[in-house]
Amino acid sequence: MASLSLKxxxxxxxxxxxxxxxxxxxxxxxxxxxxxxxxxxGKSTTLRMIAGLEEISAGELMIGDEVVNDVEPKDRxxxxxxxxxxxxxxxxxxxxxxxxxxxxxLPQEEIDRQVNEAARILDITQYxxxxxxxxxxxxxQRVSLGRAIVRSPKVFLLDEPLSNLDAKLRAQMRTxxxxxxxxxxxxxxxxxxxxxxxMTMGTRIVVMKLGYVQQIDTPQNLYNYPGNVFVAGFIGxxxxxxxxxxxxxxxxxxxxxxxxxxKLTVPAKNFIKAKSKYFDGETTVIMGIRPxxxxxxxxxxxxxxxxxxxxxxxIVEDLGSESIVYCDLDPESNADLTDTKxxxxxxxxxxxxxxxxxxxxxxxxxxxxxLFDKETENTILPRIPASNEISAKVEHGVLKVLGNDxxxxxxxxxxxxDYELSIPTDAILIDGARGETQEFEDLVEPNNYETKYLxxxxxxxxxxxxxPIAPVAMGxxxxxxxxxxxLVNKTVLLELDVGGExxxxxxxxxxxxxxxxxxxxxxxxxxxxxxxxxxxPLAERNNLSAHLISEKAGKxxxxxxxxxxxxxxxxxxxxxxxxxxxxxxxxxxxxxxVDFTPYGVVKAxxxxxxxxxxxxxxxxxxxxxxxxxxKTVNMFIPSDLDLNEGDYVTVAVNPYTLGIVDSDRDxxxx
Length: 670
Ligand code: ADP
Description:
Elements: E1 4-12, E2 18-27, E3 32-36, H1 43-51, E4 58-63, E5 66-67, E6 78-81, H2 93-103, H3 108-122, H4 137-149, E7 155-159, H5 167-184, E8 187-192, H6 195-201, E9 204-209, E10 212-217, H7 219-224, H8 229-234, E11 241-250, E12 253-258, E13 262-267, E14 280-289, E15 294-295, H9 298-303, E16 308-318, E17 323-328, E18 343-348, E19 359-364, E20 370-373, E21 387-395, E22 398-401, E23 404-407, E24 417-424, E25 428-430, H10 440-443, E26 450-453, E27 456-462, E28 478-488, E29 491-498, E30 501-506, E31 515-520, E32 526-529, E33 532-535, E34 542-552, E35 558-564, E36 567-570, H11 573-583, E37 592-596, E38 601-617, E39 622-628, E40 631-637, E41 648-653, E42 659-662, E43 667-668
Parallel strand pairs: 3-8, 3-9, 6-7, 7-8
Antiparallel strand pairs: 1-2, 1-4, 4-5, 9-10, 11-12, 11-14, 12-13, 14-20, 15-19, 16-17, 16-19, 17-18, 21-22, 21-24, 22-23, 24-32, 25-31, 26-27, 26-36, 28-29, 28-31, 29-30, 32-33, 34-35, 34-37, 35-36, 37-42, 38-39, 38-41, 39-40, 42-43
Bound molecules: adenosine-5'-diphosphate.
Adenosine-5'-diphosphate is lined by residues 13, 17, 19, 37, 39-45.
């Protein structure tokens, strides 16, 4: 039994093939995780890195509480089952199964007990004395499962274990492996390219494409809320129908126009989480609808007149339990039914009698329409919207927004007029949520981190203190009513009514009130006028270039130093270890980029020289805009620091909050 943690995991094969990019996932004990995706997407590579059969190029892998990047496969307490069984042909089934236990030098009595128990679970007791070649494929796969079971591993890894079996046996083994998981109560990670296996077996599924994770979610959520066109098309058979479409908002309805001017009208509240820019009647989006969400039966068609279209039946495939009807949305044209632009696939009850050439009426289920951005192919109906799009007015330095007046701080000085605001969903602070009354200083932990100059043995100084990641005091408070609460995975999304407008916000766990007070973290708001950005939010990360260097500390000892711009900082062990793991001997020549928040840079006695080009006062917090070798860096100004435009200041970065990217290979190391 074990949890697993994969952080920024990369695999770069010799020759530069990036098979896995920035894989991040927390796997809980006893989960059944399935990695799924087309051939070559990096599933097996990821599994093999977990097994220890493939070196991890960068990132951190933990099994339980232990970092196992450098732990030998045999010491990871995992068992792996392969597609090709990997049994010893000259040994009997019993000998194959007891092999690992014999290596462990367990007493024979105990070995027999475990092998017999595993054989009983897998129903192979009668074959224990046979050699593998005298077994069918399904039986051989049971033996290799048995060999894994007797080792009582913390984690079971299965690499396409059923792909050598015929369809019927595969279906049977699928249920058996699920039962085995229930029974063993152990973490399973299962690789397959078969979406049916993924959907039926996984507690959570990782969908991968070309080395990148596309989405990690439960089978139901992947089906109901696919995050992009790829996932939408990959999960579900027959595939989801996709059409280019435009959306026009009319009052509380949205009109969808697609495929030769066909129109559907659906309630605007179905699309409440989408950005308003998509509803101008011009922007092309991709509409998706699953074959099972289009209905042909008379009662549904009668009850949903707003989503009915007429079409002509092309081909009917009767599969017994269901019929797949391929309709032609453009029978006049020469396009045939392989042209997905004019083809509509519908899944119907096989008792519904429709024939080629029939003109039929079908109704879309308006609540199950998916919408994607045409360029990015990402959903425009995210379960947690990234931001709220709100209109506002500025008059004499006062922001009139959401039925309230907010005095704009000096960092945001805007001319009078109408504005559109993007307010990130997590930039809405809710009563008591983010340290409303917590003084910034209370959160600061003293930290004796040292800095030194390069080539100059300056006295080593310890820094005053480092700031936490993001303490924000609440600004002007607005009254809000909680209209709806939705649990999205582990996050509570609030739908708030503020001054008659809807605002999405992330709830702190404590909120179970109907009325709350909110404030807007103004430094994170983007202001636009007539579509043009006039004020960007404060950058959340700063970037500087860096190198790792080593310096002799004693006869045989070295200090690793992180040279950021022209200043050396003593590296932490974590940083140097991770950099060395990622680049080996070449580590000192790798160009690095370090990133950190405005709270991760502080005034120091020794460090990087900077000039203050601007003071950004957001009311509740102040920041200094610094110039460091021509690069702009924002630094949080604690209340006891007096800093003004035109000042020179020496700063250091907090190594504990640093992100580090290998810029040569575009790999995030930390
Ligand atoms: P999957 O299991 O999803 O089919 P793999 O993890 O086997 O995919 O492979 C991912 C990518 O890495 C593919 O492009 C594959 O060609 C490449 N690859 C796999 N093994 C090696 C290797 N030993 N050397 C170089 N490239 C490899």
